[in-house]
Design goal:
GO molecular function: hydrolase activity, hydrolyzing O-glycosyl compounds
Strand content: 25-35%
Number of helices: 12
Family: Belongs to the glycosyl hydrolase 39 family.
CATH architecture of the largest domain: Alpha-Beta Barrel
CATH superfamily of the largest domain: Glycosidases
Shape: globular
InterPro entries: GH (IPR017853), GH39_cat (IPR049166), Glyco_hydro_39 (IPR000514), Glycosyl_Hydrolase_39 (IPR051923)
Number of strands: 26
Radius of gyration: 24 Å
Helix content: 25-40%
CATH class of the largest domain: Alpha Beta
Number of domains: 2
Protein name: Beta-xylosidase
Keywords: Glycosidase, Hydrolase, Signal
Structural class: alpha/beta
Oligomer: single chain
Length: 559
């Protein structure tokens, strides 16, 4: 390996054009630790539970399990929905609950077990969603099965599964039997490590009852969970965030109910609340036929949700999960019907994800909350067109660039370090007006472990444009005075990007086996150049990189 002495910077890549612009700077000191590098990002979810055990679903789950240093949590809708298990967009079913001719419950855990078995075999954890209403229990069962497709009215999905139960005791017994079955199948210790949450977005169409009826639904469900396993963790309410009707008002009322109201199921004061959850979404638009992202609503939703939880002495230390945290609200709405979603195939989704995850850490730090997880509502859609523009991590078994951001995050461990950047937008600016100024957001997350330091660096802007980017100088202080190995990984148009390779193939909808193998290889996280070794003199070193707009770079320093 070639040895290079460099004081203070190692020049990794530079183009002639960079001399004509003012470089951006990133400053990091190994002495300035601000918290654990806890993997809040290792949470994923999707509407369609039956994709879990299908071919591409199993493949993607295996990749998610492999990239994370901790067990990945999976949240899916429709775990109690009635049906034959046929998978479709925004639909799924397990037929866990039916009734016989005399109205007695019939439980069938086969499909639910198929889903959870897949997780457990991969070392993953269910973030188990208690929903939706079985047809036999619904107060308004018809119509029940929907056949929504992209371009249809979104409200068409809210059918009989969204209504309150006709018998709350039967609802409680269903939850009790399910949790009891899981304890018997997977063991008490395993199920004690899960989190159960009730329903999804009860402040919009996913719940056709009143707020008080939802509280009643929650009380009976939580009672069923605790009756089966008193040490289980249960919570909610998974409200759609502040940009949706009454999101934060609903969250406030829910917490107050759990603290001080009479429990509908037990008649006592209060209801168990072991995890608090809400959703946060951005709002992309089209401006002159070009995608313009908007991170501000997502960041504001998170900020306000954190503030509400922290405002109650009873919940200020309760774990928080952002049950869906995404650039917008409909994963199954492809770019053909929703052109503002055209950001999803390329590197813009990658740089947005890196920049938004960093702000989630900043918000949690600033408000002192117990931030446990942030669910990326993105998985895969089985047997759909290649690169159709769904919000997914892979298409037909081929990884999209955004998945490589999570591979980068998965290599970060130890303690997070304070980062200052000359062109990194302040948190308040992002929350107020997103990232739309004259310069792009060039920022970083950094972490240090025993003999390793990692830096995740991005160049992001709301406007979907690309260029050669910016020269970025990374200055690192307090490194050990020794030889240091530096490895670089990239996500840009030439690296870790199956979408660009697919386009160069002519955008085939029926690629050959050889093409598929090439695409699978292109979808993996790729190194940039060869590792180099530098000498840190007086604890000072660093790197200079050329970072394309919407690109992401990962630097690993090891000694």
């Amino acid at each position: 390996m070639k040895i290079i002495k460099l004081i203070p910077y190692l020049l990794l890549f530079i183009s002639i054009s960079c001399f004509a612009q003012q470089p951006a700077t990133i400053n990091i000191s190994l002495n300035n630790k601000i918290g654990d590098m806890y993997p809040v990002w290792a949470w994923f979810g999707h509407d369609e539970p039956n994709y879990t055990y299908m071919k591409d679903g199993r493949k993607l789950l295996g990749e998610l399990a492999a990239l994370s240093p901790v067990p990945v949590h999976m949240r899916v809708h429709n775990l109690l929905t009635s049906g034959d298990g046929t998978a479709a967009l925004k639909w799924g079913s397990t037929n866990a609950y039916t009734e016989d001719a005399t109205g007695n419950p019939v439980y069938n855990w086969h499909l639910v077990d198929s889903i959870f078995d897949t997780y457990i075999k991969l070392g993953m954890k269910p973030y188990a969603q208690i929903g939706f209403m079985p047809e036999a229990l619904s107060t308004h069962p018809k119509p029940y099965r929907h056949y929504w497709k992209p371009g249809d009215n979104y409200d068409d999905v809210y059918t009989g599964w969204a209504y309150p139960p006709k018998d709350y005791n039967k609802w409680e017994e269903l939850v009790y039997q399910w949790v009891k079955h899981c304890v018997q199948r997977y063991g008490q210790t395993e199920v004690e490590s899960w989190y159960w949450e009730v329903w999804n977005e009860p402040n919009i169409g996913y719940w056709k009852g009143t707020m008080q009826e939802f509280f009643k639904l929650y009380d009976y469900a939580a009672h069923g969970v605790k009756r089966a396993l008193p040490t289980a963790h249960v919570g909610g309410p998974e409200v759609a965030g502040g940009s949706s009707p009454g999101g934060m008002k609903f969250l406030n009322a829910f917490i107050k109910h759990c603290i001080a109201d009479t429990n509908y199921a037990t008649g006592k004061i209060g209801s168990p609340i072991d995890v608090i959850s809400f959703h946060a979404k951005g709002q992309p638009t089209l401006v002159n036929s070009q995608v313009r992202m908007n991170m501000a609503p997502q960041i504001r939703d998170i900020r306000e949700g954190f503030k509400i939880v922290a405002s109650y002495p009873e919940t200020k230390n309760t774990p928080i999960v952002i049950g869906e945290s995404d650039p917008e609200g409909c994963a199954a709405c492809g770019m053909a019907t929703n052109p503002s979603n055209a950001y999803r195939n390329g590197t813009m989704y990658s740089s947005y994800t890196a920049a938004s995850v960093a702000r989630e850490y900043q918000l949690a730090d600033s408000l002192g909350v117990n931030f446990m997880g942030s669910v990326s509502w993105s998985f895969e859609f089985e047997n759909q067109p290649w690169f159709y523009g769904f919000r997914d991590l892979a298409t037909n078994g081929v990884d999209k660039p955004v998945l490589n951001v999570f591979r980068m995050l998965g290599m970060m461990k130890g303690k997070r370090l304070k980062v200052s950047g000359s062109q990194m937008y302040p948190l308040k600016t992002v929350a107020d007006s997103s990232i739309r100024g004259t310069h792009t957001d060039i920022g970083a997350v950094a972490a240090v472990d025993k003999k390793e330091m990692t830096v995740l660096l991005w160049n992001y802007h709301d406007d979907d444009m690309q260029d050669t980017g910016k020269t970025v100088k990374i200055r690192i202080e307090r490194l050990p005075p020794t030889f240091i190995k530096l490895t670089q990984y990239r996500i840009d148009n030439a690296h870790s990007n199956a979408y660009e390779v697919w386009k160069k193939m002519g955008s085939p909808q029926n690629p050959t086996a050889t093409q598929v193998k090439e695409l699978e290889k292109a979808g993996q996280l790729q190194k940039f150049g060869k590792p180099v070794t530098l000498m840190a003199k007086s604890g000072l070193s660093g790197a200079t990189v050329q970072l394309p707009r919407q690109g992401v770079i990962f630097l690993k320093f090891s000694w």
